[in-house]
Amino acid sequence: MNRTISRAGLAAVVAAAVIAGAWARSGSGTVTAQAVLTGLLLGGVYALVAMGLTLIFGVLDIVNFAHGAFMTLGMYATALLASSAGLNPYLTLLVSVPLLFGVGYVVQRHMVSRTMGGSLAAQLLLTLGIAMLLENSLLLAFSGDTRTVPVSFDTPLRVLGAVADLSRVLAFVGAMSLAGAVWLLLTRTRLGTAIRAVAANPEGASLVGLDVRRLHALTFAAGTACAGAAGTLVTPLVTVEPTAGELFNIIGFVVVVLGGLGSVPGAVAGGLIIGLTEQLGGLYLPGQSPLLVVFGVFVLVLLWRPQGLFGRPA
Amino acid sequence: MRLKSCIAIGTFLALTVTACGGSAPGGGAPDAADASGTIKIGSIHPLTGALAFDGQQMSKAVKLAAEEINNAGGIKSLGGAKLEILGADSQGKPEVGQSEAQRLTQAGAVALVGPYQSAVAAQVATVAERNKVPFVIDVASADDILKQGYTYTFRLQPSSDTLGRYGARYLKELADRTGQKVTKVAYLHEQTDYGTSTFKSFSDEAAKLGLEVGPQITYDALKASDLTTELTKVKAAGVDALAVTGYYRDGLLTAKAIASVQPEVKIVLGVSHGAFSSPVFPRDGGAVAEGIYDSNFNYDATKPESKAVLDAFQAKHGEELRFIPFTSYECVRLIAAALEKAASRDPVKIREALAGISFETVLAFDGPVEFDESGQNKNATPVVLQVQDGKVVPVHPAAKAVAEPRPAAE
Amino acid sequence: MTRRLIVLAVIGVALAPLPLLLPAAQEAVAVRALLFAMMAVAWNLMSGFGGLFSFGHAAYFGLGAYTTALLTIELGLSPWIGMLAGMAVAAAFGALTGYLAVRYRLKGAYFALATFAFAEMLRLAALNSELVGGAVGLTLPVTGEQGWWTLRFDVGDPAYFWVALLLMLGSVATVIVLLNSRAGLNLLAVREDETAAAAAGVAVVRHKIMAIGVSAALTAVAGGFYSVYYLFVSPDLAFGASVSIQAILPAVIGGVGTVWGPLIGAAVLAPLSDMAATLVRTPPEFLAFLQGRSGLDVIMYAVLLIVVVLAMPRGLYGRFARRPR
């Protein structure tokens, strides 16, 4: 725990230096404040996506390429319910989360579980296949038309000269609440302890009588449910289309590796760092894709500290 | 080992041969010379993929045009021969566009229409050139396609250089018409060639008009999920007007960010923007779309002929014909006029007719369609549209407008 | 080795008359199959035989495509020279990034993600670089001297097929010869047990980098041919994630770590996408709802991929042609 706090302190110092640099570079306090605020809010969304991914990666040791597609599924559930039944998009969480939990459970039980302990390639390709199947089934069913789900009560909020739409703030708050819930689940409940035991040592967990197969399925389902929640929360911010989740999937991996496998605080910190990197990187290198900076950070972390900021060396 | 090898060869060969031979019945000898049958025109559009929304309507518009020409007696100089549209889906992918263009020419198409994306256009143009079949680009923005020295490729829509220059000119005129003082303009654009080249032409022209352009702010259209920071830069610069070039999805983000940041500009003008003059923009954007201008090519809304086309499309498909598919519709009429003039089914003769044509269009251009050396329609110009009460209406120049420009509410 | 080379020669001879037999539209499908095969053969060398799972072969493919296109457009050089240069560039890039990844002991998923990140960085760099045409990409000249030196022929000329066939045979032959060399045997030893191989005196890092370099060079040939055949390259077509997937799919479906698997996978996949396109264009009565829809081809790939991974992990060739071990 102390390690975590000292790392967070270090991160805060680095962040402060980067922000000061960006201020000097852009020459405007408001622009910098806006970049920081937008970066934090975006980072919250990234953290939310990474949360499910890090659970699955950390416990099942699977690089889940279908995570973005699961998120898209959540977006479509929200968009369809909001436009056809006129539901408040945030209420559709009650549908998207259980739906994706169920989908995740079935997918793990009937497909992913058969590759457990198999080659890495098999797992990676299986999730890739599932992603392609989901994305293109959505394309076949709903065509490539884009959909938007406006929030009727959306309004800009002002902080220090910077503005943020209420819908973005809600997504951020949702992400942080979910992170708290997942963290509590993992650290304060019997189920969480069992999941952590499975992650640390599947054979050992099996020997002390834990049902590893069931726990794997539950973890995968919980991770997928996080993707569903993320899908719903970002729906008011983005245009919904069959490939909408892809971008988040890629950034999700970056965040997971940055934060450390299976680490919930790592996912949160990683998400915020990537969000800020993207926005402030835009101030440092105008005209370049912010993703270039993000991937640069990613490669550096992979080479220099593959266990991530919050992970323990293997 | 021997068994293995034999099976390997066997499967490989059997699969290749049966699968290749067994799928499409296509191919065969070109029957363009068939003098009695229909005249085939190939239509290549993104019926699937990210741009399917427009691509599907482009394909419908092409078919509607052919139907109307056939009902009016077909191509008279060819004994009333009827047009037949051969449709193809580019999927928005250049290599698919290329192979489909190839398939259509082999199936006897004497002209090609399409394709919406510049990358696909570059591909189809090579096929057209190599097969000596005229290709009329309805919409594709990159000017590079016509700089290859092709002789079989023509483009109906204005060049991106024209669009950028007119953007600056119209911005100045709009300010004058609405009685607002505009001297400093910020420019926000997506960072690829489309945005950059439009920006360059815009700022060249703006300099001549005494407008100061800056700051130039760019973003990655594919990855952007929030443009608030970009708009804050606009606000911090304290400019009078904002010019924007981008695609649909990021256009919505721009409009949302304008509404929340409130950059206090008098005019927001899209320069051939992918969202701001789309009829679905007010639906998706709601209140944030209101009052935004776009300088873009369009049909001439003051002409009764345009209304007739819109009505016919509405009656047939139950949806509103948008300006991009309208351009595809006009391409078929243009090809029909060239066929009429050439009095021949020979693609080479049709090309000659197109190269020398002067075609009265219902698009809001600055004169009839006439092509220059490179194949660009030299009279193609944009008009200014504005979102007013949830509808996109042409407001400038006055001769082609159906409403007055509305200054932004202070 | 000799027997495998003979089999390869028989395949070559048997396929050579194909473009004379097939209708022109199908020749394009056959060329696409050969392109798939080239990429998969190369991927298979690094990831199947070398055990280094790459999710970023688009990097090498794109470098080959862009190098060939640039040299042809700017200097008017023959695409053959362009392809050679592309091989060198891709091999150098592969060796450098490979060295970093191997040196810092990236394994499994981390290695795959690193290759992916390198390909994405190249894509973003190309997207923002004026030199290579930015987002629009590069168009190769259509007109000009035709022939085997310029690799420019009339559309649908069988020569395109023969060039692709030649390149594909060359790639497979390279892999066969390499596998039977001392270096190839060492590579297999490294894949099976790195520690044991190192203990036996095999230079682990050097062999891994060799596999990456050769694989990158062979992929670059496919990229070079792509730009010559389609006369066009753009950042997404060259460096996009879908290119990496295209290199993986035929190998996995045919059989990872087998010499013939990638060829079988390619021969299955390329016609499949064409069949899906035909089906959607003119569907039979009972599938009328598919008219004009899209996504079907990828759904078919995806289902095939899932079935292969779950039911026959050693691929079609491994499942049907190999005697069970």
UniProtKB/TrEMBL annotation, chain A:
Transmembrane segments: 34-58, 65-84, 90-108, 120-142, 162-186, 217-238, 250-276, 283-304
Bilayer topology annotation: Multi-pass membrane protein
Entries under Pfam families matching the protein: BPD_transp_2
Chief subcellular location: membrane
Domain of life: Bacteria
Keyword set, alphabetical order: Amino-acid transport, Cell membrane, Membrane, Transmembrane, Transmembrane helix, Transport
InterPro entries found in the cross-reference section: ABC_transp_permease, BCAA_transport_permease
Compartments (UniProt record): Cell membrane
Sequence similarity: Belongs to the binding-protein-dependent transport system permease family. LivHM subfamily.
Identification of the protein by name: Branched-chain amino acid ABC transporter permease
Organism: Nonomuraea corallina
Organismal lineage: Bacteria, Bacillati, Actinomycetota, Actinomycetes, Streptosporangiales
TrEMBL record, chain B:
Keyword Transport: yes
InterPro entries for the chain: BCAA_transport, Leu-bd, Leu_Ile_Val-bd, Peripla_BP_I
Keyword annotations from UniProtKB, A to Z: Amino-acid transport, Signal, Transport
Classification via Pfam families: Peripla_BP_6
Signal peptide per UniProt: 1-19
Domain named Leucine-binding protein: residues: 38-390
Lipid metabolism in keyword set: no
Top-level taxon in the UniProt lineage: Bacteria
Family assignment from sequence similarity: Belongs to the leucine-binding protein family.
Protein known as: ABC transporter substrate-binding protein
Automatic annotation (TrEMBL), chain C:
Record bears the keyword Membrane: yes
Pfam family, one: BPD_transp_2
Membrane topology reported for the UniProt record: Multi-pass membrane protein
Transmembrane annotation, as ranges: 34-53, 60-77, 83-102, 159-179, 209-232, 298-317
Subcellular localization(s) per the UniProt record: Cell membrane
Keywords: Cell membrane, Membrane, Transmembrane, Transmembrane helix
Superkingdom of origin: Bacteria
PANTHER family noted in UniProt: HIGH-AFFINITY BRANCHED-CHAIN AMINO ACID TRANSPORT PROTEIN BRAE, HIGH-AFFINITY BRANCHED-CHAIN AMINO ACID TRANSPORT SYSTEM PERMEASE
Record's protein name: Branched-chain amino acid ABC transporter permease
Taxonomic source organism: Nonomuraea corallina
Organism phylogeny: Bacteria, Bacillati, Actinomycetota, Actinomycetes, Streptosporangiales
